[in-house]
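Materials and Methods. Structural model of Dihydropteroate synthetase. The 236-residue sequence of Dihydropteroate synthetase from Plasmodium falciparum was retrieved and submitted for structure prediction as follows.
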Amino acid sequence: PKRAVQRMFEMINEGASVIDIGGESSGPFVIPNPKISERDLVVPVLQLFQKEWNDIKNKIVKCDAKPIISIDTINYNVFKECVDNDLVDILNDISACTNNPEIIKLLKKKNKFYSVVLMHKRGNPHTMDELTNYDNLVYDIKNYLEQRLNFLVLNGIPRYRILFDIGLGFGKKHDQSIKLLQNIHVYDEYPLFIGYSRKRFIAHCMNDQNVVINTQQKLHDEQQNENKNIVDKSHN
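The predicted structure was written out as tokens:
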């Protein structure tokens, strides 16, 4: 936990305003370590960070705003412990709250609502690379995310608390991930929480500098749009 918290403070000093932390990899063909639980990897880190941040805040009169803390989990019990101890601000759920719909109830705590990231994916780490056929890549994914948003709104979650993640690499080929980024404008009315800086497709397309430059320009233009909020969640 100490090393992880040290890195969190380094990120804050580097200008990070949102920190996303997770304890179970969802990368291709990853097998969870049976010797340590997801909970034991993340909760002690968040508890220690909270303690050290409060210590700093009490010692420094002018303390910069605390960064937004996001927990990357589909685990009901992990998120519940985070909520019960006020450790996080955002639930980043790669299943779009389909793994356990009961987790939606935890987003409402008395007079407080937690924000939630809904991600599009297909299959699991062992099958997702084979599930890449779409009728219309861009709009199939957008329609899915909008359906999940509507479901959460019907269950009492304010729309402004819901963010989208198009799930780059999760059931998408390299060229499909690039196409999604190049068509990111279709989400102009939605806040986005996207991991694009540490993906396999980046290495794949590095030999084609035109693709890299055009895609980077698209993202830059969208991030400069005053109505757009794109957060890259991929940095360590």
